[in-house]
Every structure is written in structure tokens, then in C-alpha cells.
Amino acid sequence: VKVDHTAYVDSRWYTGSGIYRNVRLVKTAPVYIPQWGIQVTTPIANKNEAVIHVNTQVFAKKYQGEDAKLKVEIFDAAGKEVEQEKTSFDLTHENSIKQTIELDNPHLWSLETPNLYTAKVTVYVDGDKMESDVTTFGIRTIKFDSHKGFFLNDKNVKFKGVNIHHDAGAVGSAVPKSVWRSRLNRLKSVGVNALRLSHNPHSPELMELADEMGFLVNSEAFDDWDRAKKKSQVYLGDNKASGADAVSYNIHFNEWAERDLKDLIRRD
To answer: pTM of the full predicted structure?
Structure first.
């Protein structure tokens, strides 16, 4: 895999280009959970009870076996299993399986106490384990009120946010998770509780840290739409680049924007 960045070496903020995030090769079983195939929501969440909805996609490359089951196990931050649910499903077509789990006295996710749970989902066919995947989630409720603003767990919360780009200054675009942790610790120390991520999908490691450290996130999809930003040719601000030197994501927008946006939503 390689990147030809000939036309992309100029930007309003040039932070390098190429393969600057982790690359993964994933091998699946014949019956498998696709990438970002587990979605968790918590429609009811308070200090006494929580209702957890786990929606899992399961794909079957070919039909095999007759007894297919999906098992969901919920673990707390200490790794202790607190609930589980097992559901049978039909292997003959693609499935979206929704399971509901009730949990007493949950530890809520908040800015001050960002408690996280883990959902482990395992697929069994004829009693044999085929594949498993995990996702972390916080048990919390959010809502917006047109007069009073944002509420987290029924508490009115003000966004005290900053805007950050996907690079780390002199470190460039290939940012280790430890660098993000250090930066977020410094932001937290001066009262920041929210991040605006400009202007494209940021790294999974940053999203994980926001969950772990207690930050609200405004995740953005696009900087270029169907027309390119102006680029410079000789000096910053001349905006005279043209032709191949001026192309950007805009040449892919009409074909890829919908898929890219859906992937952003599923991932984040």
C-alpha cells in the first residue's frame, strides 16, 4: 500500500501526508461480525437502573449449521461480568440482532466520573464459537433543550471546548496515543470538557481517550465538499494553485461522501 500525495502537499495547515494511522488486516470466520458491527445505546440510565440496547450485525459468507446463537456479556470497568444475554437467530440471511439488557445500580458515565462498560459479543454455530468482538460504552443520557441547552444525565452542562486538528504540532500526523493523553490532561487541567474535531474523522485512539477521560466530542466529517479549498502556489495566501496542484477530496465527494459519513457515524 502506498500513497501518492503529489497534489496534496499544500494545505492551509500542512501536517504531512501518507499512511499516518494504524493499518489492520482482519481475517474473519465464515459467520462474522463486520467492522463497527456492534452498536450500544442506553435509552434509560439513572443511578437505580439502566436499559442497555445492543444491536449487532452478523454476516454469513455461506450457510452452515442450524443452531446459531449470539451471546452478549457486559463487563464493568474492573472486568467483572455484571449481566449477559443469549439469543438465537437465523443464519440464512444477514442479521441485525437487537438484545435488551437491564442493569441495576449502574455506574453512570459523566465528565467527572467517566465510567466505561464493555460489551463482548460472541457468535456460536452448533455450539462452536465462531467469532467474538468487543466495544466499550458509557451508560448515560443526553438531551438538548431549546431554552436551557445541553443535559447530561439530567444535569445542565455547559460546553467549555477547544478546537483541535488531527496532528500534534512538530510530532506531525502520526500521533502516538501517549501524546494525545498528555495533551488532553493539560486541557483538562484548565477546565476544558469538550472537543471540536476539525475537520475530518480523527484517530480511534483519540476517541477512546475522550471516552476514558471524560470529554464531550463534536465529531466532524468534511473540510472539502464538492469544490476544493483554494491552495497556494508560491507563498501562503496567494491562492494561485490550479489544475492537478489544486485538487482535493472534492474530486471524490459525490462518489464517496455518503459512505464516508455513514462509516464515521458507525465508528464514532
So the answer is: 0.90
